[in-house]
Amino acid sequence: MGCILHLESATEGCSVAVSEDRLLLFRKEDHESRNNAVSLGVMVDEALSMIDENKLNLEYVAVSEGPGSYTGLRIGVSMAKGVCYGRGTRLISVSTLKLLCVPVLLEKELEEDALLCPMIDARRMEVYSAVYDRALNEVREIRADVVTPELYQEFLDAHPVYFLGNGAAKCKEVISHPNARFIDGIVPSARWMFPLAEQSVRSEDFKDVAYFEPYYLKDFVAIKPKKLI
User: Fold this and answer.
1) What is the share, in percent, of the chain residues with pLDDT greater than 70?
2) For residue 35, which of 16, 104, 111, 149 sits 20 to 30 Å off, Cα-Cα?
3) Mean of per-residue pLDDT scores for the chain
């Protein structure tokens, strides 16, 4: 599968990892300093030094594509592009919402028909979210939502739905359906990127280094929930 450098900086913190053939070889995270411009660069330098010292052949750079903050994503994508240009590697982008689901799928026991709803906080009761099944097939596309009690009812009436990510905590008081499950403490991390990045390698889903742009949290246009009959 080749050696992959993973960069994540879509929300408050940032992280870097290196994987090869489904093995995690390097991992470093900073969720405290909130200074991605400095922290990410230091961690990337350490990761590249480890790659060089172990004579690994870096073939791909994977970066979290958002939704996320403008500043965080710009730092991560710019750094990923710099490594791609400097090392002649291919660029892979990973959905931040799908990335949030990976540790839940790998570490939690979920019902067979469970759905996952990762949420990225925007402001007030606004989130960016999507709905996926356990195979990470898209059940509902990424949308900007104002969270209301009825918003996810069509999914909750038919399935257990797991809400996670930094936008989910503020929704606990609003979404009180018996099928709603909330998982705390899930943040996007580079160490969970390799299953999604390797899937992109297998399908040859690579990005144009010159023109790739991430999914910023900007120009928020709320999607009003449909009235349920």
Assistant:
1) 94
2) 104
3) 92
The closest alpha carbon to 16, from 1, 28, 30, belongs to 28
Summarize pLDDT for 126-175 with one digit per residue, the tens.
999 999 999 999 999 999 999 999 999 999 999 999 999 999 988 998 99
> What are 197's two structure tokens?
């990045």
148: which 2 tokens? 């209301």
CA-to-CA distance for 95 and 102, rounded, in angstroms? 11
Q: What pTM was estimated for this model as a whole?
A: 0.92
Give the list of residues 6+ apart from residue 221 with CB closer than 8 angstroms, or none. Answer: 144
CA distance 64 to 76: 8
Q: How far apart are CA 72 and CA 52, in angstroms?
A: 27
Beta pairing partners, 26? 18
